[in-house]
């Protein structure tokens, strides 16, 4: 979905925003606190139903108001979200109300790139698992429903483990069987997608870190050689002691390994940032190969990437057919990159929540 029109109301300090004629690349510049990142936050809210800065709606909905609205339009689609202080939301696609955020996410695949962050590598399995599942959601039709069934079953099993420490193995047998069945399907789907993703990852890794050999190693979260049901049975007593389920796809991980050891321990901060870029760009490339284009939010581009890395990133995103929303304090270098690469763009100045189009 190439967004041609974007409307934002009552998000943080932004005045009523009405942007038309958006381009493949859209650059928002201004001082710190001007509202640049709030524009990206609003697009993220529309695509995912949540902010990347806070879990609480009251933190992004303007003070003394009850809701925030984000609306986007392309040549073929109109999508909108109204988010309330309570956390409830109203979602519309082409004027019709829809029940789940997933329907918007399918229309508007979105990647948030943060050049200053190394969280995916340094902060444990969860962000890597979320990264994998984003790709799963967009390329594997069976994944979302299977994951929902698995998550519900896991929640029920954990509830039983917490409420009764004297449960016998036979008491949990039906839950073990269901969790195992859904878990094995998830494992199979993830394994297939990892296999397809790997060549894309290696190609983008060579572009950004050609001197390094880094491999992705998928860990399913259980002993796949004997099966999940075997783990649920064998570790029954330990699960009762813990009060939660230790083994399963909810504990899966992607380990990133160099020839010298784990990437989180071996790579420099700069190398980690480029590795994360390679991971996310390769996901965008995989979607592009399936004729699915991704909207990319690129926050503070010039903060930590040198000029060469900036240009390589912009060029690659353009090759992949992405629509990109960029924020920066220093727009001259971004303009020069876009001009040198002959990429269509629109420049916006953001001051105290007001957005002004800068003519080319």
Highlighted features:
single chain; 360 residues; alpha/beta; Rossmann fold; Glutathione S-transferase Yfyf (Class Pi), Chain A, domain 2; 2 domains; six-stranded antiparallel sheet; six-stranded mixed sheet; 15 strands; 21% strand; globular
Give the % helix: 40-55%
Distance between the termini: 24 Å
Tell me the name of the CATH homologous superfamily of the largest domain. Answer: P-loop containing nucleotide triphosphate hydrolases
Order of helices and strands: EEEHEEEEHEHHHHEHHEEHHEHEHEE
Strand content: 15-25%
In quaternary terms, these chains amount to: single chain
Uncertain spans = none
Radius of gyration: 22 Å
Helix-and-strand structural type: alpha/beta
Number of helices: 12
Could you explain the architecture of this structure?
This protein has 360 residues and is an alpha/beta fold. The protein folds into two domains: 1-109 and 293-360, P-loop containing nucleotide triphosphate hydrolases (Rossmann fold), CATH 3.40.50; 120-290, Glutathione S-transferase Yfyf (Class Pi), Chain A, domain 2 (Up-down Bundle). It contains twelve helices and 15 strands. The strands form three sheets. Strands 2-1-4-5-6-7 form a six-stranded antiparallel β-sheet, with helices on one face. A six-stranded mixed β-sheet has the order 8-12-13-3-14-15, with helices on both faces. A hairpin with a 2-residue loop joins β14 (345-351) and β15. α6 packs across α7, α6 (173-208) packs across α10 (269-289) and α11 (307-319) packs across α12. The chain is globular, with a radius of gyration of 22 Å. The mean pLDDT is 94.
